[in-house]
Design brief:
4% helix; mainly beta; three-stranded mixed β-sheet; 3 helices; 29% strand
């Protein structure tokens, strides 16, 4: 049986600086006591080469990499980032290269704590799947945009705005319209009026008719009231102004109705004469209207019986003749069949008579007339 011998074998050892000063034979091993690394000589390089890379203790500061005694391809985590030594000069920080995860710096970046994050303003429409967007959004030309109706909306100063003259009856709901308006929800908007009272002419609202008893006193402007009427704001009434009238012939009832007095007037005080208008028409003049005229009384009986005497005022009139005397007659006298000329009033004639007028008149044709006889009949 073969004998077993236990041999204690020790390899060359020393500090790392000592190692670097010696060219080791091929396969010769050396162990550094200070860095605790194993090296194998190749007969060429001083200090040999390390047969394996080493992961060093984690650092908090990248600048501390210069203090790490490392060999090529060694890895150190500094401030959450992997660094690998790419040259023999470990004291030069630039010899350490970031070998962490490679990212697209346009969108992904390391923040101040070397934590991966999305870069500010780095995403574009090209990073968004079109199927992930819907109502109100769209991607056009690689740009994320608002999807809107160009009929009523537009982009103004990079802001979405309502296009001028774009809102019509379609956009306005009929439920939003209040009293006096109709339309909306697709129908033209207009005024809601009573067609019996109002109508439209070329699109302009006009009054067709006024309903009975619809116009009140408050609706009437006092400036509309002219001569002969009075605007009474206290009693809310419009009153007739009765001026220069004879109250014995024109009266107003308690209900406000104007009418002729039913009492028979006395002719001597009611009638002041006759007048001839520009057309030659003769009519009686009431003394209440022409109370400034001064008349000449007519004698109650005249002598003579000829017709010419009646015209000249020198003969008695026949039955049923009204006689006026003086050059400017202002009072006339109706003489009945019994020649009771002293009674001046309404006379019932028993036969045809005349109203005889003597004075100076001008007809419509310009002819001077001094005598006029007007026949009077009973019927």
């Amino acid at each position: 049986m073969a004998s077993i011998k236990i041999v204690k074998y020790k390899i060359r050892r020393g500090t790392d600086s000592q190692r670097r000063s010696v060219v080791l034979d091929q396969g010769e091993l050396v162990y550094t006591l200070d860095t605790q690394r194993l090296y194998v000589g190749n007969g060429v390089l001083s200090g040999g080469i390390s047969p394996a890379s080493k992961i060093h203790a984690t650092l908090t500061n990248v600048s501390s990499l210069s203090n790490v005694i490392a060999e090529v391809n060694d890895i150190v985590i500094a401030n959450n980032v992997f660094y690998q030594l790419t040259s023999t000069n470990y004291a030069n920080v630039s010899s350490w290269v970031n070998v962490g995860t490679k990212v697209d710096s346009r969108t992904i970046q390391y923040n101040s704590n070397n934590i991966l994050s999305i870069g500010l303003s780095s995403l574009s429409a090209g990073n968004i799947d079109p199927v992930t967007i819907s109502n109100g959004l769209k991607i056009t030309g690689g740009i994320l945009q608002t999807d809107y109706s160009t009929k009523s909306l537009e982009i103004s100063s990079n802001k979405l705005a309502i296009k001028a003259a774009s809102i019509d009856e379609r956009e306005i709901a009929s439920s939003t319209l209040g009293n006096g308006l109709s339309g909306g929800s697709g129908s033209k908007i207009g005024l809601l009026v009573n067609p019996v009272t109002f109508s439209f002419s070329s699109g302009v609202l006009q009054l067709s008719s006024i309903p009975a008893a619809s116009l009140t006193f408050a609706s009437i402007n006092s400036s509309w009231i002219g001569s002969g009427l009075s605007y009474n704001s206290l009693s809310s009434t419009i009153d007739a102004v009765l001026t220069n009238t004879d109250n014995s012939t024109i009266v107003k009832s308690p209900s406000g109705i104007i009418s002729l007095n039913t009492v028979t007037p006395v002719l001597s005080t009611e009638w002041s004469g006759v007048q001839v208008d520009s057309y030659g028409r003769v009519s009686a003049i009431r003394s209440s209207v022409f109370d400034t005229l001064q008349g000449v009384k007519v004698t109650s009986a005249l002598s003579g019986s000829s017709l010419s005497g009646v015209f000249t005022g020198t003969s008695s009139p026949s039955s049923g003749v009204v006689v006026l005397s003086s050059a400017n007659p202002t009072i006339f006298q109706a003489v009945s069949s019994n020649l009771s000329g002293g009674f001046m009033g309404f006379v019932s004639l028993t036969s045809a008579g005349f109203i005889a007028i003597e004075g100076s008149f001008t007809s419509r044709s310009g002819k001077n007339v001094s005598r006029i006889a007007i026949p009077v009949y009973t019927y």
